[in-house]
Amino acid sequence: MDSQEIALRLREFWEAEGCPAIPTYGSIPAGGLTFDVFFGILAPDPWCACQVVSIVDPSVALYDDDPLRPIIDSCLQVTRQDPSGDLRKRFIESLRVLEIDPRDRDVRFVAHGYDLSHLAARAAGWRVLIDGIEVGSLFYVRQLGGIDLKFAPIVVEYFLRRMEFAVGIEGEKMPTERGRQIASYVLEHANPERIGSFLSLHADECEQALGGGLYYQAYDHVLASVYLLSVLTARDGLSAKEYATRTARIADLARGCARAYVEATDA
Amino acid sequence: MPDLLLEVGTGEMPIDVLSALASDLSRRAGEAISENGLLGDGIRVLYTLRRLVFIMRNVTGQRLGGEEVINTISRVLGGIMAALTSERAIRRDASPADFILPIRYLVCLYGEQVIPVRARNVTADRVTRGHWRTHREESIALPSPAGYEQALAGGGVVVDPERRKQMVSNAVTAAAHEENVSAQIDDDLLVKIADAVEYPQPVIGRVNLPSDLRVTFANAALREAGFVPLDAGQGSDIRFVGFADGAMEQDVVRVGYERVARSALRGCKLLFSRDRKASLADHVRSLRGIDGELGLGSLWEKTERLRTLAGQIAQAIDASPGTVDRAAFLSQADRATWIVRAFPSLHGIAGATYAVLDGEESSVCIALEEGALSISNGIPGASEGLAIAIARSYDDLCSRLLTGSDMHDPQVIGVVDDLIALMVGGKVDLDLLSLLAPVSEQFNIFAPVMKTEELGKRLRTCLEERLVEYIETSEKITSPIASAIPQEVRANPYRSSACARALHEASGGEDFSLLLGSFERLRALLPAGSTRAFDPALFEGESERALWRAYLKAEGKLEAFLTKLDYAQAIDQLITLGSAIDRYTKDIDTHAGPKSMGNNRLGLIASVLDQFAHVCDLAALLAAHGYALSDEKR
Q1: Do B265 and B285 sit in the same domain of this protein?
Q2: Does B250 reside within a domain?
Q3: Within a domain: B482
Q4: Domain that holds residue B404
Q5: What pTM value is reported for the model?
Q6: How far is A202 from chain B (nearest CA, A)?
Q7: pLDDT band at B262 (very low <50, low <70, confident <90, very high)
Q8: What is the C-alpha to C-alpha distance for residues A113 and B493, in angstroms, rounded to an integer?
Q9: Do B244 and A106 touch (CB under 8 A)?
């Protein structure tokens, strides 16, 4: 069972649970949310969906795309704003479609405070480990874009590349060429000064777009900023103060996007 | 009399706050119960990552009837649950309350009776839950609080954290025995493992040690991943023990654990290789961009302060100034390395290892490693390592006090205690307040002037309070004796300790009791504000001249004894003054004759008492003992 088969089975499981599959998204930075999820959560009505997305995490560049700490991972992301039902139980049930029997395995839910401060969000939840390997997460979002959410959603994630180990794929996985190149770029070639300038330019462009009420376009710059900040942190090890300042700036932009969307949709 | 049990069933809570959460719940419940007219014998604090438990034995109402007791318990515990799950509690980012909610179930029993405490939409009953995975969260009905732990053990849950720690520790010992190696598990790791599971089940794994990776580094990586490494020699496999939560398929889980361990070691080696692209000294430059822990500038500024402090300490303990300065310069450099950022416990060890690889002098490498170790590893053997360790503790303490930490904050107390232990254990004869002046400008950059002026006072108070505590607990010397340590040496822990030991030894003797009496009589003659000046030519009586001669004789000797920290001899020397004092107080009327004669006599008395004050504060000892002249018949 490879990651595509895993994704397919899980998508079918969640579709049967009332979470429609929506088109696969390209890449988002770790700690980001896709357009669909960010604005879907802010929509006036409860929103459910599952979506495969590629997550890029430059912060683990040092580990050279280690299979257990991959720079790029495919992720099936399920978002449910429907307050009914015990999603933790549903998550455990979903493991059975992958032929994982929780009774035989060391399945753990490890409490974790998710840092989504760059999206002006408050989130908390659990990392999910099977036999010590982090294969997914469950977290709920209380606030997004600075807006307290009427229906606090739970986001369920399955890290498909790592899930392959849990379903019993033997042997070691090699780092991907793309992952290696990102690692090399982040650690050796990225120019911190220029990245700092890019961050400023993205902020300006984001505000420009928001001035025209173009929140989707503006959010594009938020995601780009989250990625660049991650590169900058991994490259240089920003001081806590500088990191906080830059995060706050991106959070302001995310707030602007959320506000613009809510005003436009009168949510 | 019935026991009281409250169990709050939750989802998985953050393990780093578990113990504090459980203690807080029990403290609040215990206090609220006793404040409301109920009595109980003792409280037990139990928890797992999925439940908080409060048990109080033999709970009764002092003047309350049976129904009133139940109503009171219900009201009190209901209030506590409301506070625990209030909106205010969950407004904080990822607060523990985020994980307590939603409450899955509540159990509340007073003897055999259910107390229907409510929290949100959950009402307590008598049904607890077994392990979520191995026992499918089976319902376990409890007849009463008695047998609660046994009932849960039957459901695959060990609810006593101490018992889980014991199980982990025993399993590691057994695994080490089986593999014919030794193993050590530090308390932090033990707690981390025991709190992460409801029923620890050992799984032994094995991984190859990557070439060129030090065992120390590999072990740190394994510990960070939550495994207990078993001892291994360089070049061989490393065996380790992991702990699953409850029964499972050992062979399947082992594969996963070994994969995680391999990844951890691979990552560790990558970090090591990356670090080695620069020398340790090169990493010092990066310290400018890394904030210190307490907001007093970057690690670069901390390094500069450590160089100043360590240089001063080196002079006092005859350490090599060049070695100490180099070690202080490099002492924080490893905190800019990737390996220490990933595994903070390697701070010091990584610096020393990298220094060796860089070809730094061995004395510098030793000072780096010893200077960063915690006091639990013992006192540094090399004086250069000791200088670094003292400078580090001192800077930490001053930084905390400057940034507003309370003197009774447990972390401040911990740092002061370490500093005192280093000074006493390392036999460092140094007044710690004297270190402040050379480094105050470096602190002034970050702290307002008022605060740095205040620092000296706070530092003195802090040292004095903890010193008395240290002497009482570590040296087993009673507090009256500790209170007699002279004010002028209280910022010098080693000297204080030497003084207290000598006083302790001397205080059992008859001579010392007589000395106390002599001292008290002499002191009674001296009004406040007397000058120290006297002219021996004005002495008239033989008793006056005898005391003066004894004083002169003692003065020189006392100075020599105190320089050598020989407080026993110094006290003996004071005892030799006793007969001259007794004769003086018996024969001389200090008010007789002209006023100038009286003042001259008082000048001599003040000077004699000053000699006492250099050795010990007998006035404090007398006050502590309630000693009075009328007692002196011995």
Answers
A1: no
A2: yes
A3: no
A4: 281-474
A5: 0.81
A6: 25
A7: very high
A8: 43
A9: yes
